[in-house]
Automatic annotation (TrEMBL):
Gene3D superfamilies: P-loop containing nucleotide triphosphate hydrolases. This is Sulfotransferase domain-containing protein. SUPFAM superfamilies: P-loop containing nucleoside triphosphate hydrolases. Keywords: Disulfide bond, Glycoprotein, Signal, Transferase. The keyword Signal applies. Residues 19-258 form the Sulfotransferase domain. InterPro entries: NST/OST, P-loop_NTPase, Sulfotransferase_dom. 3'-phosphoadenylyl sulfate binds at K28, C29, G30, T31, R32, R111, S119, Y221, K238, G239, R240, T241, H242.
Length: 277
């Protein structure tokens, strides 16, 4: 850190500060896209890696000074941000973040909970297949073969029960301090979501349609960063092809999540149409 702090590229007033805004999750909902898109804003500096400071005990024990060192250089007037999707489901993260800074701004990006389960499965499947390990079909994981009901012991299902995790954050932070980003919408219309985020963060309106280019090969928006001629897409681990669920299993998941989704809408005051699809 000492070396980079004295690098010649550095503006004289630059230093590392604790984040004033954190993307707390949710895993597989577009957290990387959200952070990278925000990183195009001149008033926002983003940590390159997931820090996992508040959810991993061994990291938390390293202390806030270690955490600060993981942050990028920034100038006064710029916001520092990091994203660690596991914070959302961590029992300890809300209290730990609150004791760092009770005024920190929190962002949570959510997508249809069934799509999120499939995305989570696809990630594990892809990793296992690359190691030549055997893979179980998704239907065998999301449904308990004994009871025929949705398998609550399958972690991707538990993560998608948003209200149970959300409730922990509500015990530590006022509602207005957490902004919810629609991850399904961010895939098809990133700018509309980011304009709302800029407003929430209190940075000047900067991002425009010029910053986003739809890439027909990737089927996702890529970034046109200020001052760069070429577009920049997220890595190939983002935007994987999902398996198609058997209709009976899909219906079972829909029936299961309907109640949980409604509880989330009530608790958060934000309604999505996840049950329509
Ligand atoms: N612009 C753009 N480019 C590529 N991918 C995009 C984009 N916007 C959102 N997404 C969706 O982000 C999903 C991955 O979510 P995360 O970044 O939160 O995953 S992770 O938890 O950090 O592993 C990833 O999920 P999969 O499609 O299952 O790979 C994407 O659907």
């Amino acid at each position: 850190a000492a070396l980079s702090e004295s690098s010649s590229e550095q503006a004289p007033d630059e230093r590392r500060v604790l984040p004033q805004a954190i993307v707390i999750g949710v895993r597989k909902c577009g957290t990387r896209a959200l952070l990278e898109f925000l990183g195009m804003h001149p008033q926002i500096k983003i940590a390159p890696d997931e820090v996992h400071f508040f959810d991993k005990d061994d990291r938390y024990e390293r202390g806030l000074e270690w955490y600060r060192q993981q942050m990028p250089m920034s100038s006064p007037g710029q916001l520092t941000m990091e994203k660690s999707p596991a914070y959302f489901i961590s029992p300890t993260a809300p209290g730990r973040i609150q004791s760092m800074n009770h005024t920190v701004k929190l962002l949570v990006i959510l997508r249809n909970p069934i799509t999120r389960v499939i995305s989570d499965y696809t990630q594990t499947f892809t990793k296992k297949r690359s190691r030549n390990e055997s893979c179980v079909p998704i239907e065998d994981l999301v449904i308990d073969s004994f009871s025929g009901e949705v398998n609550l012991r399958y972690k991707p299902i538990d993560i998608s029960i948003y209200h149970q995790h959300w409730a922990r954050w509500m015990m530590k932070f006022p509602r207005h301090q957490i902004h919810i980003v629609d991850g399904d919408r961010m895939i098809v219309d990133p700018l509309s979501e980011l304009i709302q985020v800029e407003r929430f963060l209190g940075v000047k309106p900067f991002l425009t349609t010029d910053n986003f280019m739809f890439n027909a090969t990737r089927h996702f928006y890529c970034m046109r960063k200020p001052g760069r001629a070429t577009e920049h897409c997220l890595g190939f681990s983002k935007g994987r092809t999902h398996p198609q669920l058997k209709p009976t299993v899909h219906q079972k998941l829909k029936d299961f999540f309907r109640l949980h989704n409604n509880l989330f809408y009530q608790l958060s005051g934000r309604e999505f149409h996840w049950d329509a699809t």
